[in-house]
Backbone:
């Protein structure tokens, strides 16, 4: 184990990331030496920049948009979760950077934060075990894996592009099918956007927004607000988006105004970071220390 933990984030862009704050709080809490640096890497430079970073003696990096899937061919090994999700958000370097193992801690971040929210909000999951996921990108893959880990196998995914939605379902059905009796369906977003199927939302106990809609406080499209209103009042609304300031996301605002329980993506962000930190350092860090760092900045 290195005595100084050189950590970082690769993505494009990366400058607004909260990850340095979370990981530096963890280093400080545990009295470990190290730093967390941001590497803005354009997609066309991914392979060469990763090789260069790996040689520099870093313990590991987090991976964010747009590299979570693109980085996989440049790794030497995948964890079981990264393999079945088909996306990587954490890399560990060993052997002078020659060994590069990819992990996916978003799955843990999502499942841990969801199970806590279900308990905190006393969500009744007896009447329905069905979930609707809006979006079919990298984060949605971790969401589906996290739902399966918690035993929620009836999942309807809505995407803008039918080809992407179908590829999403076929690849995950193959990799996740062994985990349980998976009923994963893909649909076009317009089915719920135009409220073409009245039952598409009514019998779901959970709606997950796995798109950037509402990010940076941008107003939600009207169709999305109309969808939310179709959910059963007992449903939980989970917005993967999180606000950088101490305020609710537009989807949370809407959920609260209509009387739904809701959660934003901040807890997922914290838990995925805590798990990545443990993988790199071998030391468990309480999520509280990361939450407090966010609170000090007025962001939690
Ligand atoms: P991604 O791979 O780019 O996927 C985004 C998905 O959203 C795609 O299906 C995309 O459709 C769809 N989409 C984008 N804009 C849309 C719009 N205006 N209307 C409808 N659909 C739209 O991104 P990602 O990595 O999955 O991230 C999605 C969101 O989750 C981001 O806001 C990200 O910050 C957040 N996230 C949060 C955490 C956390 O820890 N809280 C972790 C990961 C991600 P197309 O493919 O057709 O473009």
Residues:
């Amino acid at each position: 184990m290195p005595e100084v933990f050189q950590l970082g984030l690769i993505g494009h862009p990366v400058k607004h990331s909260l990850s340095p704050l979370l990981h530096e709080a963890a280093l400080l809490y545990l009295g470990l030496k190290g730093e967390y640096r941001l590497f803005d890497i354009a997609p066309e430079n991914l392979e060469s920049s990763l090789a260069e970073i790996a040689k520099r003696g870093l313990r590991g990096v987090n991976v964010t948009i747009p590299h979570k899937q693109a980085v996989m061919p440049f790794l030497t090994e995948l964890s079981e979760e990264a393999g079945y999700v088909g996306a990587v958000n954490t890399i560990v370097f060993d052997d002078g950077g020659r060994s590069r193992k990819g992990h996916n801690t978003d799955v843990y971040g999502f499942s841990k934060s969801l199970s806590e929210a279900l308990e905190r909000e006393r969500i009744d999951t007896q009447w329905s075990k069905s979930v609707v996921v809006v979006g079919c990108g990298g984060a949605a893959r971790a969401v589906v894996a996290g739902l399966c880990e918690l035993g929620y196998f009836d999942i309807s995914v809505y995407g803008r592009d039918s080809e992407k939605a179908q590829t999403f379902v076929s690849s995950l059905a193959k990799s996740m099918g062994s985990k349980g009796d998976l009923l994963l369906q893909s649909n076009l977003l317009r089915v719920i956007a135009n409220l073409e199927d009245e039952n598409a939302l009514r019998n779901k106990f959970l709606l997950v927004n796995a798109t950037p809609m509402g990010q940076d406080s941008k107003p939600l499209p009207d169709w999305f607000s109309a969808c939310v209103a179709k959910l059963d009042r007992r449903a939980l609304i989970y917005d993967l988006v999180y606000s950088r300031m101490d305020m609710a996301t537009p989807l949370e605002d809407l959920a609260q105004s209509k009387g739904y329980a809701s959660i934003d993506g901040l807890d997922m962000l914290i838990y995925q970071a805590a798990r990545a930190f443990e993988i790199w350092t071998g030391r468990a860090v309480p999520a509280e220390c990361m939450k407090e760092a966010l609170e000090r900045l007025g962001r939690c």
In short: Residues 65, 106, 109, 135-140, 159-161, 164, 189, 210-213, 215, 240-242, 265, 268-269, 272 surround NAP (CB under 6 Å).
